Q: What sequence folds into this?
């Protein structure tokens, strides 16, 4: 079955450490996205990528970095510069270069806790 | 800018009760509208969508009608089940901008709790 795989499901880190969240898709989608979800809140866009080797900042990119070396993969690094990194992180993808009618497909998320 | 407003939760219902979750939007253009559902510990799944005025999206007993005159897309279900307990997100995307930067705008989500 095609889908998006995020790993790990739970991640714990000490403050000051960088951490990388994995996102892999086998849907052959061009566009990929990272969202952050905080308790009781909606989704906020961190970064997105339309094609390999290209990505754009979203609304809350500070303290995060991404890469898109392969179509299937869009890892997110939460750096020590992110002041409040504890959150639920969702990866998503969309087909057709981002056609407005195509829905987002989401992974099951990674819950990051930084202490 | 574009925005989506949902009723605040949690919404607590007994099994077989009627469900309405209100969603209204403001948009600078002509949007397509979506409802997503998030079950505990999981990502979001597309529940239904409507792409033009008066369209009705439906799936798994849920329905929502695109009302341009009231800028609304309320989610309804005639008889909820315990398994419907989840967080529901209303979202919009503007039409006519066919690239990955055409972002979905999400509402804040409404938690539904259905008791047996």
A:
């Amino acid at each position: 079955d095609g889908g998006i795989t995020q790993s790990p499901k739970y991640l714990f880190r000490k403050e000051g450490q960088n951490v990388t969240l994995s996102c892999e898709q086998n849907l052959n989608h061009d566009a990929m996205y990272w969202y952050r979800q905080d308790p009781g809140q909606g989704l906020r866009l961190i970064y997105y990528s339309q094609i390999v080797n290209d990505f754009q900042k979203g609304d809350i990119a500070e303290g995060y970095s991404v890469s898109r070396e392969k179509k299937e993969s869009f890892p997110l690094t939460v750096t020590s510069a992110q002041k409040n990194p504890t959150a639920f992180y969702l990866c998503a993808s969309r087909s057709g270069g981002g056609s407005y009618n195509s829905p987002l497909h989401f992974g099951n998320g990674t819950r990051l806790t930084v202490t | 800018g574009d925005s989506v407003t949902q009723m605040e939760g949690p919404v607590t219902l007994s099994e077989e009760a009627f469900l309405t979750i209100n969603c209204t939007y403001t948009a600078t253009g002509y949007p397509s509208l979506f409802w997503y559902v998030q079950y505990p510990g999981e990502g979001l799944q597309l529940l239904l969508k409507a792409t033009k005025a008066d369209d009705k999206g439906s799936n798994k007993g849920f329905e929502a009608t695109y009302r341009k005159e009231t800028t609304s897309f309320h989610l309804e279900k005639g008889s909820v089940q315990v398994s419907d307990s989840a967080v529901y997100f209303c979202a919009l995307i503007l039409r006519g901008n066919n690239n990955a930067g055409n972002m979905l705008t999400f509402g804040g989500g409404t938690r539904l709790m259905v008791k047996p």
User: Anything to note?
Assistant: Chain A is about 0% helix and 45% strand. Residues 68 and 74 of chain A are 5 Å apart (CA to CA). The first strand of chain A starts at residue 4 and ends at 7.
